[in-house]
Amino acid sequence: MEEALLRAVLFGTPLLLAGLGALLSERGGVVNLGVEGMMALSALVAFAVGLQVHPALGVLAGMGVGSLLGLFLGVFAVSLRANQFVAGLALAALGLGASGLLGKRYEGTPLPNPLPEGMLAMLALILALGLHLLLSRTRFGLYLRSVGENPKAADLFGVSVDGVRYLALALGGGMIGLAGAYLSLAYRPSWTDGMTAGLGWVAIALVILAAWQPLRAIFGAYLFGLLFFLQFRLQGSVPIPSEAFAAMPYLLVILVLALSGRARAPKALGQPFDRGR
Amino acid sequence: MGVREALARTWYSQGRALARPMLKLENITKRFGPVVANRRITLEVAPGEVLALLGENGAGKTTLVSILYGLYAPDEGRILLQGKEVRIHSPKEAQRLGIALVPQHPELIEAHTVAENLALGLDLPPVFSRRALVRRLAKLLEGHPLGVDLEAPVARLSAGEKQRVELLRALLNRPKVLILDEPTSVLTPKEAEALFQEIRRLKGLGLSVIFISHKLDEVLAIADRIAVLRAGEKVGEVLRQEADKDLLVRLMVGRSLAPPPKVPPPRAEVVLEVEDLLVPRHGFPVQGVSFALRAGEVLGIAGVAGSGQAELLQALAGLRPFQGRVRFLGEAWPQDPARLFALGVAHIPEERSMGVVEGMSVAENLALRTYRRLAPRGLLDYRIMEKEAEALIGRYGIRTPSPRTPVRFLSGGNVQKVILARELRGGPRLLLAMHPTYGVDVGAAEEVYERILDLVRGGSAVLLVSEDLDEILSLSHRVAALYHGRFVGPISREEADRERLGRMMTEGRV
Ligand SMILES: Nc1ncnc2c1ncn2[C@@H]1O[C@H](COP(=O)(O)OP(=O)(O)OP(=O)(O)O)[C@@H](O)[C@H]1O
Ligand SMILES: [Mg+2]
């Protein structure tokens, strides 16, 4: 039982981190479908730096890569006013492809001095709380929510819509990068192609499940973590195909959405902003 | 006196330049594709002066002030603030320079509270608590005549209250130049008077104001100087002392207004029967509504903004649940907007944005009620749709480059005309109209009244909600008021005057 809870938390942590990152930009109205690719690439860079220099620096490197990729998405999704969904999907493919290609030489090398998972799990919890406070108690949070609800009004109020959105993508990218770093430096201290295993997509679902609330994301992430643990543990021992377990998180999202009914997305989610249109 | 002489009389003030203008626009030109919204416009405002901008719908007023607020870049011309040329490339920059704008249509964040919306205009500390924010705002606004409940979510406010929030936001910034784009369209006379007093007070402190309005009485009450635009050009400028209503009308629309038309007496046949209607809403429910409306009759409903007028009309238009008995032409009332329209009930909603789909074209918006007829085999026939649209565009004088132009690109008054054209065509049996001439210029308003009277003469019944008591008194056979949701009256037009109507609105007794 205790083991189940521990595994749930440790497995839920990268989900929580990546989910918070996606949540942050979504509150500002920018959908980030690139999470999976961003995680993969930052996991690789974090691992490379962690192996050659120090794991702590690896964490910073992973966060930096995540931030940069967030800004890169911003070029298309914010400045060029491209379709955010298409831009995000392209980024996901790019990140996965690039990490697979660049990571060949690290494949199979173990990290001699991995980071403690528990510490990063704590950090994720603190970040969730911090994000909650950021949204509700700070000027940036107010600007961010305003931009996500009605960018035209925010613009009239003198808020720099593009500036706020870039900052949200960079900060969110950092958290997604941290999720990647957690995977390759702590959770499974190594690099394997495809080690993100769809976590980035589940993180996007988690944002919806959490109804765009950071504190709810904590419970959502650990719940998913528990499901993954059960899937792993019960595999083969019960006559349920593992695909059914793998589909559980998604079914859960659909179920919760259907039941809660009222999860309100930021009103301007997915809409590029163009003054004078 | 003809327009030409009227114009000649304005030369005097045109030739004179202000000694030290606060703000000066020089030869501003702005094009939207083939449309020239502003053509070589030159204007000045002195410190402590109120400059009124007048002009027909689509004359280019909003475009001009949008340039000043950094929303559009001008194609030509320059802007000088206190003698220095400035480039205003964003609203943020405009705010930094001390320019504030109250836009024509309230742009607020509906999901946020009033306090959070106002906070966006303040210089906030990086970290703050909601309570401290509310306290700070409450202190700033203590006893302010335009005060609004700070903790109410904006989505729950009436149009008038939203407008007050916009005004407060602009004033909180302590601007040097305050631009008001039709600020009083949805304010009650009392609220408008409070606004004017505030403007007069701030004038004394050197504030320059650019004031756009279609209400000439207001313009004459508050302005020091009046500039008139027509089709993107400045066609005249007069000092307040030189101006009267007739001169302004001529400058704007090139003709005088006809005297208000006579409303023929109603017929015997009852169109709408309402008995003990109760409409739940946030705050006091709308209640005690009982009346019978006959064919060819206009019932005017007055009330302080947010007293339940919008909710009452929404209920009757099938958009809101209610209790009580309603019969239309002797039949039970179907609670279904589409069926109601098929039976001949038209609705002009409170907020313009509710009456149109902004991203869709003028023709599509005009066809929203009748598209089924335009798609006999399931596919829309755009040729017929656009031909019908062109007829309506001509008949209602809608100013648009083409029927295919998205409604988003139309000026405010022209959007209103699109709604009117769609709802009034086909002669509804019952018209539920809320501020039908909201933001419509005086010439076009006259035509709107004429269209409504056409309906009335043809035997349609009209429920007219308006903040404009003169509009109510000149069109209605009977008048009623809503007071905190309670229905007061109705009384006949002969028994009513401004004072009595005012009492019904603010004290709830006839
Ligand atoms: N973004 C835009 N794109 C294209 N055309 C536009 C745009 N904004 C305004 N126009 C056009 O410019 C002209 C002037 O519009 P503007 O909104 O300035 O008029 P207005 O004087 O404020 O009228 P109203 O009294 O109805 O508010 C109109 O013909 C309008 O259709
Ligand atoms: Mg306008």
Keywords, separated by commas or semicolons:
heterodimer; A: 277 residues; mainly alpha; B: 510 residues; alpha/beta; Rossmann fold; 3 domains; six-stranded mixed beta sheet; 18 helices; 20 strands; 34% helix; globular; binds adenosine-5'-triphosphate; binds magnesium ion
SSE blueprint and pairings:
The complex is a heterodimer of chains A (277) and B (510).
Chain A (H helix, E strand, L loop, with lengths): L1 H26 L7 H18 L2 H25 L4 H19 L14 H21 L1 H11 L1 H6 L4 H27 L11 H11 L4 H21 L7 H19 L17
Chain B lengths: L2 H12 L8 E10 L2 E11 L4 E6 L5 H8 L7 E6 L2 E3 L4 H6 L2 E4 L11 H6 L10 H11 L18 H14 L4 E5 L7 H16 L3 E5 L3 H7 L2 E6 L2 E7 L5 H9 L16 E10 L6 E9 L3 E6 L5 H8 L6 E6 L2 E2 L4 H7 L1 E4 L3 H4 L6 H5 L15 H15 L15 H13 L5 E5 L7 H16 L3 E5 L3 H7 L2 E6 L2 E7 L5 H10 L3
Describe the structure.
The complex is a heterodimer of chains A (277) and B (510). Chain A is mostly helical. Chain A has helices spanning 2-27, 35-52, 55-79, 84-102, 117-137, 139-149, 151-156, 161-187, 199-209, 214-234, 242-260. In chain A, helix 2 crosses helix 9 (199-209) and helix 3 packs antiparallel against helix 4 (84-102). The longest helix of chain A is centred in the middle third of the chain and has 27 residues, at 161-187. The model of chain A has no long low-confidence stretch (mean pLDDT 90). With 510 residues, chain B is of the alpha/beta class. Chain B has three domains: 3-98 and 175-253, Rossmann fold (3-Layer(aba) Sandwich); 258-344 and 427-510, Rossmann fold, CATH 3.40.50.300; 357-426, no CATH class. In chain B, strands 6-7-8-3-9-10 form a six-stranded mixed beta sheet, with helices on both faces. In chain B, a hairpin with a 2-residue loop joins strand 9 and strand 10 (233-239). In chain B, helix 14 packs across helix 15 (412-424). The longest helix of chain B has 16 residues, at 189-204. Chain B is globular, with a radius of gyration of 23 Å. The two termini of chain B are 44 Å apart. Classes of the chains: A mainly alpha (277), B alpha/beta (510). The A-B interface holds A 136-140, 142-143, 145-146, 149-150, 152-160, 264, 267, 275-277 and B 66, 69, 71-72, 90-92, 94-96, 101, 103, 107-112, 116-117, 119-121, 124-130, 169, 408. The structure holds adenosine-5'-triphosphate (ATP) and magnesium ion. Residues 61-62, 104, 181, 411-412 of chain B line the site of magnesium ion.
